[in-house]
Amino acid sequence: MSYTIKDVAKKANVSVATVSRILNNLPGYSEKTKEKVLRVIAEMGYQPNAIARGLINKKTKTLGVLLPAVSDTFASVVLSGIEDMAHDLDYSVMVCNTDKDGIRTMKYLQALREKQVDGIIFISEFFKDEYYNAITAMKLPIVLVSTKSPYDIPFIKVDDEKAVFDGVTYLLDRGHRSIGMIAGTKGDTIATLPRIEGYKKALKEQNIVFETKKVVYGDFGFDSGIAAAEELLEQNKDLTAIFCSSDEMAAGALSYLYRMSIRVPDEISLIGYDNTKVAEMAIPPLTTVGQPLYEMGKNSVRMLLELEEGKTESMIMPHKIAERETVKSIRK
Amino acid sequence: MSYTIKDVAKKANVSVATVSRILNNLPGYSEKTKEKVLRVIAEMGYQPNAIARGLINKKTKTLGVLLPAVSDTFASVVLSGIEDMAHDLDYSVMVCNTDKDGIRTMKYLQALREKQVDGIIFISEFFKDEYYNAITAMKLPIVLVSTKSPYDIPFIKVDDEKAVFDGVTYLLDRGHRSIGMIAGTKGDTIATLPRIEGYKKALKEQNIVFETKKVVYGDFGFDSGIAAAEELLEQNKDLTAIFCSSDEMAAGALSYLYRMSIRVPDEISLIGYDNTKVAEMAIPPLTTVGQPLYEMGKNSVRMLLELEEGKTESMIMPHKIAERETVKSIRK
DNA sequence: GTGAAAGCGCTAACAA
DNA sequence: TTGTTAGCGCTTTCAC
């Protein structure tokens, strides 16, 4: 067992109150006692017990982060932003891998509550009603990253529709007329429908008719990108470009194209979404619509902490096309 | 403020002691009271406060994980194993991104201690003396993953020397005689020196003389792989294969070779290390020496928890070559 | 089978 | 400037 504040007090010949004051930088002691106490603390190697502290303050200085998978490139960058900002602000973060499983998510929500975290950040998943009910019941501040909800919960995300609109327009501006789309999970109202909407609008603005067979669904993952690319190419012989709703799916498409000996960008141009490390590492390097993932993570903790002060504004983050080597201009 | 055990007790007309017993499945109450109390708990939506509990038990059911970067593919897979196992065992995990920074690591160690975590898992970094001192001072169980130390601290890792030996031998067996190596950080005694040793031994066994100019250093990251490949190729015109000490560096090498229009595996064979997702997603898919990262993560928490019972055995995990498409057999 | 009460390590009145 | 003391929400003797 380690030393307690009592041990320090005794050894320094002061009361625990004084030690506590010194520890918390509260007024009420002489320079002399402060020095003495600090010396004793150093000598003993005393460290305050944050659990005891938390019991009183009702503050644990820890945040809970719920995400679909820590090993997911996308989420892990957001997490890294969260972690950095939390560290700067002296908070700790508990990671909870939901596996996109509702039961597991609920279990975590309960655990986080029991452990009295000061707030929750929820990344990139569909925010179910039951989560909402649980969270409001526990009256914890929460912010959504890269997703949103019908409730009055602040979120941070990019404007998906606009982002895809810009991406597709980028292709259009380079002479592409027959553009396929590898969309996200079918029916996903957050990250799929609005993006398809953006795709449609971009086409429409240049008077190109939308064709259903040009959009194919995946699940944001690599393998689904392979399958989707195959389907797309079989259904559309005239494609000159593909817009992919995630870098991983773009990597899958790239992989499929490579296997088919279809050269990128010479025969087919490709554009991804997210601008994660996989875009950089792709061969050839992937042009992609970038989201400021790291910044979004950082902002989410800032926002979460401000929430305690009553603010509650969502944030639309800017997207930006990262130009690399998978898009070719073709003669118009 | 939520309900406390007191509220439950009052409403159920029993003492807090009884409620506590029921909550903890201790003996000492009738079926009838149990039912009543449970009903009241459900009605009120009462949840025990783990902080208060932790103050008494000196157990928080939370683990601290220190890793160089959460967004690192390698570490994030280990983390995901840790997270899964922890979840199964009803533990939470706090992630600490050390950024490979000693000061930051020490800060985290202190925070983890103050927050009374039950144990620490330290992933893939060099384990400094000062960490050791801090940790032994706080008498916390700790296990090292993918690294080791001169101290009596249990670790989980693969046999790096043997793994590289096998990887290089794999190349040798396929007729390659002039094999370059992209090693890790220069001077790293854990993940670089032993691997170079394995490389040397494999060559030696087939009577090939080792040449210094055939090994080049990186830092395990993508960019360093690009630079290393370039250096290697300039220094060695006859290379037919390259062994890379991480998949990311292999991806970098792949990228460089692509830019130089050197075909893989036709002109140069490549083999990576780790078998992370980047190996699967590479073009062409990367043959690599795989480490069971996820399993290592899982085992680390099991081991950590057993440590409390006094056990202290390290674990060497099996490696296995994942054969994909970057290695070609050449005529002998 | 059940309850009263002490106390985990700390903070925050309230006194002095 | 400093100390005493009452809790924070819970577990755990010890009585009954």
What characteristics describe this protein?
homodimer, 332 residues, alpha/beta, 434 Repressor (Amino-terminal Domain), Rossmann fold, 6-stranded parallel beta sheet, 13 helices, 12 strands, DNA-binding, LacI family transcriptional regulator (chains A, B), transcription cis-regulatory region binding (chains A, B)
Count of the domains of chain A: 3
- Describe the largest sheet of chain A: 6 strands, parallel
Shape of chain A: elongated
Name the CATH superfamily assignment of the largest domain in chain A. Response regulator
- Count the E strands of chain A: 12
Please indicate the percent range of residues of chain A in DSSP E strands (runs of 2 or more): 15-25%
Tally of individual helices of chain A: 13
Protein name (chains A, B): LacI family transcriptional regulator
Organism (chains A, B): Fictibacillus marinisediminis
Keywords (chains A, B): DNA-binding, Transcription, Transcription regulation
GO molecular function (chains A, B): DNA-binding transcription factor activity; transcription cis-regulatory region binding
